[in-house]
Amino acid sequence: MKKIVIHPITRIEGHLKVEAIVDNGEVKDANISGTMFRGIEIMLKGRDPRDAVMITQRICGVCPEPHATASVNAVDDYAGLTNKIPENGILMRNLILGTRSVCDHILHFYILSGLDYVDPARVLEYNGSDKDLNTLKYFLRQGYSKPFLPRDEIDYKFDAETTNAVVSHYIKALDIYRKAQQAATIFGGKWPHDAAIVAGGVSQQLTADRITEFMWRLEEIVDFVKNYYLPDVIAVAKTYSEYLEIGKGCQNLLAYNSYRTKSNGSYNDTLFTGGLVNNIDKYSEININNITEDVTHSWYKDSEPLYPGEGKTEPAADKKEGYSWVKSPRYNGEVYEVGPVANVLSTYLSKRDPYIKNMVEDAISEIGGNISNMYSVAGRHLGRVLSANIITDQLLDWARELKIGEPTTVEYDPPADGKGIGLCAAPRGALGHWLNVKDGRISNYQVITPTAWNASPKDKDGQPGPYEQALIGLKIKESQSPIEILRVIRSFDPCTACAVHLVTPKGNLIGKYKVV
Amino acid sequence: MNTKKSTVIPVINIQGQNCTGCATSTLCSEYPSIKNVLLQDIIPGFKLEFIFHPNIMTASGNLAMEILENTAKEKGYVLIIDGAIPTNDNGIYCITGEKDGRKSTILEETLKLAPNALLVIALGTCAAFGGIAAGNPNPTGAQGVGDIFLTNKIKTPLINVPGCPPHPDWLFGTIEEVLTKGLENIQLDDFRRPKTYYGKLIHENCPNRAYFDEGKFARKLGDEGCLYELGCKGSITYADCPKRQWNGRTNWVIGSGAPCNGCTSPEYPDFVGDFYERIIDLEVPANEKKVKIQKKIII
What we know:
The structure holds two protein chains of two kinds.
Chain A: E1 2-6, E2 16-23, E3 26-34, H1 40-44, H2 51-55, H3 64-79, H4 87-112, H5 131-141, H6 160-188, E4 197-198, E5 201-202, H7 208-239, E6 253-255, E7 258-263, E8 266-272, E9 275-278, E10 282-284, E11 291-294, E12 328-331, H8 340-349, H9 354-366, H10 377-401, E13 418-426, E14 429-438, E15 441-448, H11 450-454, H12 466-471, H13 483-491, H14 496-500
Antiparallel strand pairs in A: 1-2, 2-3, 4-5, 6-9, 7-8, 9-10, 11-12, 13-14, 14-15
Helix pairs in contact in A: 4-6, 4-10, 6-7, 7-10, 8-9, 8-10, 10-13
Chain B: E1 7-15, H1 21-26, H2 34-39, E2 46-52, H3 61-73, E3 78-82, E4 85-86, E5 95-99, E6 102-105, H4 106-113, E7 119-123, H5 124-129, E8 142-143, H6 145-152, E9 158-161, H7 168-181, H8 195-198, H9 202-205, H10 209-214, H11 241-244
Parallel strand pairs in B: 1-2, 1-3, 3-7, 7-9
Antiparallel strand pairs in B: 4-8, 5-6
C-alpha cells in the first residue's frame, strides 16, 4: 500500500487535493478535499436579499452566471415575483446563462482538460500554413515551453495530424471563449460577474441593434460547437476509448429544471428537465425535500443529516473523522452525481423531446457505445458538449423572441419576512440556493453547488462521494501525479471555490485545526 | 535550441482566496489577446513567460510545487497574486499545495516569493484590499497583499490592480507601461493604483452625468436617468469603466442599466451600504479622504 498525494490539482477552478491509497497499480481508496475556505454565506447574513445576487456570483469567477441565476430565482421566489418576471427578463436570463455556460464547456474541454489528451510540443514537427500553429511552432523553436512544460508522464495517443488539428482548436478556443463572453455581455453588462441580472428581471434595455449584434456574434460560436468542439470530443472518446469504461462513479444522476421556456403561452416549461436517473436509464421525478447534508467526515459537529433550508452547522475542525470542508449532500441518503450528463440524460430519458432524443442517440452511436458509457470520463466530456449543443440550438430562438420597447423588469416590493428557493442547471450540474429573510435582511443563506455533490466526502454509512467512487478501482501507472487520476478528476470539471464556500458555521468563529 | 531574441520576464501567478474571476477576466483580454500574451512578445522586445499559473499549466502536485520552490531561490521575476490572503490560524484557510508531504499556505508562498520579486502585482480587489474574502465579518482574517507587506516589512515594489474583476487592460496595460516607462515612472494613487486607469471617478466620465446634474434620477431599474438613487457607487469609485467599457466594448455595468457596486474601492463590498440603496453618510462627489478608512493601506 502506498499513498499518492496530488496537491494542487491544476487546470481546474480552485484549490483541490486528492489522496489515493494505491496497491499494485490500483486505487484502493481515495479522499478528496478542498483546501480553500472563505465563508461567503456568513457574509450574506444581515444583508439586503438583492445583494446576494451580486455577492454569490463572487463564489466563482468561472461560473458566476449560474449563481446569479439561482440566487435571483431565490430572491424572486421570496418576493413573490417568479410568475411576474417580464418575458424579456426571462429570455435575457436564458441568453446570459446559456451563452456563458457554452463558454464554460469550451474552456473546460480545451484549456483545462486539453493538455491531458494532446501534446502541444508536437507542433514543432508541423509544416503547414495554419497561422496559430506557426505562432506556436515559432514559440517552441525559440526555446519557450512554459506553461506547457514541465509535466509528468502522459500517454498521448493522437497521431501528428490529429494532434495539430486539436492544438489549433485549443488556440482557437481562446478566441471563441472571449468572443462568446462578449456576446453574452450585450445582455449581462460585464464578464465575469454580470451586473444586469437583478431581482425582478434584467436591467439591460433592449434595442434592435443590440439584439442583432448578439445574433450575428452567435454565428461563429454555433459553428465552433458543432464543427470543432463536438468532433474533437468524439475523437477523444474514440482514440482514448478505454476512458468510455473508466471512472464510472456512483451511477445515480440528479438534475434540476432549467431555462424557462414557453408552452401553451406561458413560461411553465423548461429546456432541461430535472429528475433522477438510476440503474443507467430509469428516470423518475425529483423532490428536493429529500435532499439532506451529512457531516460525518466533514469538519463540523455531528448532527443528523439536515435539509439545506434548515442549515445547522457548527465547525469542529479537529474532529478525528473529518477530512474535508465539504459536506455530503445526499438524496434519500444515497450518493448522486450531478453535471451535464445528468442534465442531458434526465431530459432525454423523460422522453419529451424527440430532437434531444435523436441528438443523444446519434452521439452515443458515433462513439460506438451505449448509454452506460455516458457514466465514464469520456461520457462526461460527451455530456458536456451535448449540453452545449442543446443550449446553442436555442440561443437564436430566444433572441428572436425579445421585444423591443417592452419591460425587462418588474418592480421589487418584497415582504419583510419570507423564504425562497432558487435552482438551475449550472455548467457543472444541479445548483441550489436557499434563502431565509427576516425583517428585510438575510437571516440564513445556504448553497449546494454541483461540486459539493460530486466532491463530497464519505457519509455516515461510509458511502464515498462521486469523485471518490470514480477513483476507487482505477488502474494507474504509478508516478508523482498519475495522469489516470487527473483525467478522472478533471472529467467532472471541479469547481472547488464553489464547493468549499458553502460551510455555514453558526456565529463568527470558524474553529481551528492544526497543520499536520 | 535556445534562440530567445527578446528580454524574458518570468511571471508567477499564485492564487489566494479567489474565485478565479481575475483569471477568466484576463483570459478575455482583447489587445493583446491571451494567445498573444502566452505565445508572443507583449510589446516588441519583451516576452512574458508564465512559469506558474494554476489554471493553464500542465504540471500538478509535486512537480508544480517544485517550480515555486526553485523560483523562490532565484530573482528577477514578476509575482502576480490574485485572491486574498487569510491570516487567522496561521493562514490555514488557503493552501497552495504540498510537496513531499508538507503543506504550504498562500501566506507562506507570498512571504517566500515576494521578497525576491522585481515587482508584485496584487490583481483584483481581494489581493489588493481583501475584497469579497474580507467581507464583513471577515471570517478568516483575509487581507490584501499590502497589509501582508506592512506586517512582514516586505519592501518589494507593489502595484494594486483592483476590480471585481479587474479589467484585463488594467493588468496588461500596467505591465506594458512598466516595460515602456520604467517602474519608477508609474504614477500611483494613495492606494497604489495606477492613475492611468484609476485616476478619475466613474462619475466624472459617466454618460448619465448630465442626468445627475439636472436632477433626473431613475426611481426603478429600467427607468431613464442617473442611477444614484438606486445605489450607484460611481460617484465615489475610481475607475475608467465609462470610457474603456468592458468585454470588447460590448457593454459595461452602468450601460446595462445597473448601478455600479464600487468594486475597485478598498472597502468593497462593505463601506458604502447596500448595493441597491443610495449611498449613506457621504457627500457627492466624495473623495477618498472623506471615506472612513478602516484598513491599513501602505502609502
